[in-house]
Design brief:
The chain is built from 3 helices and 4 strands. The protein is of the alpha+beta class. The chain has a domain at about 10-75: Gcn5-related N-acetyltransferase (GNAT) (Aminopeptidase, 3-Layer(aba) Sandwich). The protein has a 4-stranded mixed β-sheet with strand order 1-2-3-4, with helices on one face. It is globular. It starts with 6 loop residues before the first helix and ends in a 10-residue tail after the last helix.
Length: about 100
Amino acid sequence: MVQAISYLFFYENKRYAVVYKITNNLIGMVGMGLEDTLNEVEMAYFIDENCRENGYAVEALNALFDWCISVSDIKYMILTIDCANKASCRVAEKAGFELFENGV
């Protein structure tokens, strides 16, 4: 893993594959980038519908979050999710995110 990273390079939008270890099959993605309207670093994720409810999204979010915090001076990151998507809300909660604002 890279120990030093350029400040500007870090804030470019990045997407990483989420791969099932046993088969090496692609099962989703996790990423982060600068959210322009809030000027904050936002995380995103997607897990194939056949692989959901196994903790993969939480594991991927936690791994990316831990890495980003360790190689930068970022104190926090955000997720923007639809509160009607209960599964996504559970992923956010299990990954340690807290509800900051409810747009409803």
